[in-house]
């Protein structure tokens, strides 16, 4: 039976012993505005919880040890700077940070890494870092955006920003951090083009930096969603442990 370890709670000798055969999971979050009602730590909070829960759930089924690294709490969030409450790295800096962490893991004998991403602005950077890490450091690197695992049947495939989806999960994890959620008189329409990723400051200004109806979020639904995401992420870790 394999084990799940937290890097930050494990001594150097045990890490050195397990790294060559392990899968290291790096949660990649952000510190950015999440409307007037959610904490700036939302992305890092949710992603770290999913990473930790998934590693624990997968440990008994995985062919390899699973090591959860400390979360990267800053992401590529420049598009949130106008709203305040945001600490952002440029995409170039975030890419360098992730690549340095991959280099560090490889230097200590690690060979397999999963980048578990929790912020839309990090998607391209994580993809580039996974490709760079595999060629520069002889690593096998997987990149997984947690929300793509969500059961969104009957809902938009992209769950939005600081709306009902994320708010429900923060209510389940840290209800003390969720502020008042005044009903929106009208939900701003988010312009989309099928199959196209659209980046526009005008879109963020039009929706006031958060989407849909956060006032509808419920803690029970957030708990259900988290449990579903943890289970699905655990399944992916088990599968990845067999192929990385």
What does this structure look like?
- By secondary structure, the protein is α/β, with parallel strands linked by helices.
- Helix content is 39%, strand content 10%.
- A five-stranded parallel sheet has the order 1-3-2-4-5, sandwiched between helices.
- It is globular, with a radius of gyration of 18 Å.
- The mean pLDDT is 92.
Task: Looking at this protein, list some descriptive labels.
244 residues, alpha/beta, five-stranded parallel beta sheet, globular
Entry summary:
39% of the residues lie in helices and 10% in strands.
Distance between the termini: 18 Å
The tally of beta strands, per DSSP, is 5
Report the order of strands and helices. EHEHEHEHEHHH
Main sheet overview: 5 strands, parallel
Could you name the ranges where pLDDT drops below 50 across 5 or more consecutive residues?
none
Strand order of the largest sheet: 1-3-2-4-5
Binned, the helix content reads 25-40%
Name the beta content range: 5-15%
Number of helices: 7
Write down the Rg.
18 Å
Structural class: alpha/beta
Mean pLDDT across the residues is: 92
The 3D shape can be described as: globular
